[in-house]
UniProtKB/TrEMBL annotation:
Source lineage: Bacteria, Pseudomonadati, Pseudomonadota, Gammaproteobacteria, Vibrionales
Known role: Part of the tripartite ATP-independent periplasmic (TRAP) transport system.
Main location: membrane
Residue intervals passing through the bilayer: 21-46, 58-75, 96-123, 143-168
Protein name (record): TRAP transporter small permease protein
GO MF term (any one): transmembrane transporter activity
Keywords, in A-Z order: Cell inner membrane, Cell membrane, Membrane, Transmembrane, Transmembrane helix, Transport
Subunit structure of this chain's protein: The complex comprises the extracytoplasmic solute receptor protein and the two transmembrane proteins.
Keyword Transmembrane helix on entry: yes
Length: 189
């Protein structure tokens, strides 16, 4: 299954596409901002013997958003790095399906707990208002990067839940697991 989003239809398809497009935009814009910032830091530091004031603070905030939204996109595209030896050895589509289902359910439980912690982190920040923790120089509220963390975990949980739903809906079919089967066949040869 190449694109998780395209497995749905109607309004849910449009919502999932929009969310993915927004997340792609966040990652692209964040990457460009980080690259330009480092470019200007080098120019200012070595060309003009100056310093860009407190750039670490806003870059760290942008980095949190980029990393966690990027992780959600990787969950959507199923392109996280894994060390799956069983996936290489197994050839039976039914066994591959059961293994994938078990792995995804474990991942869903872990991500569900991490999403809960992310939401608890945001609620804690909101409850602390107006005494929010802030960065030293630019006074960026810690809630800004923490919101990126929470949204990233929530989106990873949603995409994993959707994948588990599709696994259960289609059962051990070659259509859904064709990439896993093809990868296993390539590794065995």
């Amino acid at each position: 299954m190449k694109d998780l989003t395209e497995s749905f239809s109607g309004r849910s398809l449009n919502v999932l596409r929009l969310i993915r497009q927004v997340m792609n935009a966040i990652v692209i814009v964040s990457g460009c901002i980080m690259a330009l910032t480092f470019f200007f830091v080098v120019i200012l530091r070595y060309g003009f013997d100056a310093d860009l004031f407190a750039y670490e603070e806003w870059l760290m905030t942008i980095a949190f958003w980029m990393f966690f939204i990027g992780s959600a996109l990787a969950t959507h595209n199923r392109c996280h790095i894994n060390a799956d030896i069983l996936g290489i050895v197994m050839r039976n589509p039914t066994y591959i399906w059961y293994r994938t289902l078990v792995v995804q359910i474990i991942e869903l439980m872990i991500l569900g707990y991490l999403s809960y912690l992310g939401i608890a982190m945001i609620v804690e920040e909101i409850m602390a208002y107006p005494m929010w923790q802030k960065s030293i120089a630019l006074k960026i509220p810690f809630m800004v990067p923490r919101l990126g963390i929470a949204i990233g975990f929530i989106m990873m949980t949603i995409y994993t839940l959707l994948y588990v739903y599709l696994l259960l809906k289609h059962g051990p079919s070659k259509v859904l697991l064709s990439e896993d089967i093809q990868q296993a066949e390539k590794m065995v040869k």
